[in-house]
Each structure stands twice: as structure tokens, then as C-alpha cells.
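Action item from last week, closing it out:
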Amino acid sequence: MAHARLRSAATPESAGLRAPELAALTEEIDALPLRGWCAGAVVLAGRGRYVALEHATGWAVRYASYDPESGGGVELPREQWQPVTPDTRFDLASLTKLFTALAAMQQCERGALELDRAAAGYVPEFGAHGKAHITVRQLLTHTSGLRPELPFYERPSDPLTLLWDERPVTAPGSTYAYSDLNLIALQQVLERLTGRGLDTLVREGITEPLGMRRTTYGPVPPESAAATEDQRRPWAKADRGMLRGTVHDENAWALGGVAGHAGLFATAADLAVLCRTLLTGGAYGPARVLTASSVARLLAPPGLGFAVDQPWFMGELAGARSEGRAAGHTGFTGTSLVLDPVTDTFLILLANTVHPVRRPPDNGPRAAAATRLARSVQEGPGVRGRSAP
């Protein structure tokens, strides 16, 4: 059975959402570049098969460099500033982990991958130094015991030896500790298992079937992308200059731009397709990329690759109203995605908060945007935004 594709709502109310709350959300997003949270942003909100809000604000590129002496950005001439549009691609950073998780579940459906088998059963060298019993599930749930990251960027000629030589800092399975290493390790499992690159698995298994044509690993044409950071030491981990269309994450860069934890670029509209696919149990239009049972496993607490019920970035979309089922992720560059199966809503916020330089994290705008969407949800029978596919 084909599932209806997303369409723009004639009015927010036709999507089962309240217009005043979405208008307030738009105003709050417009304020973000003015207050310095980001250079530019795109917000997209919807319910059911309707996109009720898609709004771009600010600048895809504004700065030529960062000046550490003044602590501010060196602006380009005003005529060279380039605005964000709905078609602007953003460096997704850790939202890439969601695609790696989907690719893993696809291999589980084929019977090629087992969640409770040791990752070393697929990649023997990973099992050294106390990692022999870390399971694929523990990689997806961040309970492997591995530290958050390793300096792959300091060994670009052979970065994975650092992962093979790493020891867990806590007993595998004992503690939750978010780690990029988990999804980098899962990438090695998937590539060894299939004999194909993760970029190919994502493209052929997810983005092409779903028609997500603007979601790819980089590099992407610079003019299509929001700029990120003037990456220089000591504030960055490598000296690469102003980045635009090239992955921001230094470890993903050291791994050739294709990594399990970072590297994808996408538009908000493409990510809305991903949200709709998950909310319909793995299908969009004529394509099915996962079974409903696999989607349920991804999104069931504590989540496989997905974060579940996290008010710190989901605001009031998390908690009692969603019955603890809201799921999503954030990315270091200023990206976030949340979907709520209970209210059938989804929210994407893409921003370049690291342009022209990285700054202390502030998740307040993410949570505030999700709260606006939660408060916009209309209740009662006959709400068209929740109509069946």
C-alpha cells in the first residue's frame, strides 16, 4: 500500500495545529540570528501528512573568518552575505547517527546483523583490549563503555587503529555514556558485513527510495550549503579554514567525510520525509525502507540510535503528553529533529550555530521550538492532521 506523501497545509488548522503558536514559533526563530545563537536557520513543523510551517531566516554565509583577538566574526562585505533559503543544505553532524541506525536495522531485517551479537564477531580487530563482548545493541544505545571520542584527526593516515587499541572506560552494558565511537564502530560492522561503504548503504537503502535527493554525504557544492566554522587551532582540532559544503566534524573529515556519526548534509524538507516515514511505520509513497516492527524497535525507549523522551531539547513534546515516546536527536552544528508518534507531529530545526566559530552549547531554542509545536496541537475528533495515510 502506498502512503501519502507530504503536502503543504492550506492553513495550520487544516493540519490540526494552532496558527498563533506557529506564528510565535516563526518569530522566535527569526530572533535567533539577531541574538547570536546562529547565523541562519530553517524551521519546519508538521503533523500527519501536512507540513504546516517551513521558514528560513538569517544567513547561510556571513563571515569571512573568526578573529580570536576581538572574539567575534570578521564579516564579509554586505553584498557577499548569502541568505538561508528552504533549499539550503546544512551539515547534519550527529543527525547522521539516525541514518546509520536505520541502515543497521535494514541489515537486521535481512538476517545479516544481530543486535545482541558482539561487534567483534563482524570486525575481529575491534574486540581487542576489553571490547570483545560489546554488542551491536550496546553501540546503538551508547552503553558500550567507550569514551566520547578519540583524536582520529591526529592520525589521518590510519585513524581506525585508535579505535582498535581503545579500552572501555566502564564495563560494557553497565552505564549510558554518549559516544561518537559507538556509531563509528557500527559503521565498520556494516561495511565489513556488506562489503559496501556506508554512503552507498544510506543512499541505496534510504535516501534514494524515499526521494531524499538533497541528502548526501559531503562534499556538496558550497553554494548549496550553509557555512560552518573558521576551523583553526586552538578553538578547533585542525587547521582547515572556513568550511562550507565540507564536513565540520574533524573526525568525520579524518575518516574521509563518510562516517557513522557525522558527515551527511540535508535540507529540512528531506528530513521531514524521514520523519513521516518513521511515523507511518517505515513507508513513504510507494517505498518501504523498514518494517513497522523495526521502526518500533528503533523508537522504543531507550532508543536505538535515537534519543527518546529528552525534554532538554524536545521541550514539551517530551513527557506525559507523548507518553514518553517522542524521539529524535541533535547535532553539534546546530541541528535537531523530533518526532512524536502520539500526536503525529514532527519538528526540524537546522541552524549553523558554529558560524563563524563554535560556542558553548545552548539547547534552549531547540526545546522552546518543540514546546511551541506541542502547544499548537489541537485535540478532539476529526483533526485532519492525524488522518490515516
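Closing note: The chain has a mean pLDDT of 96.
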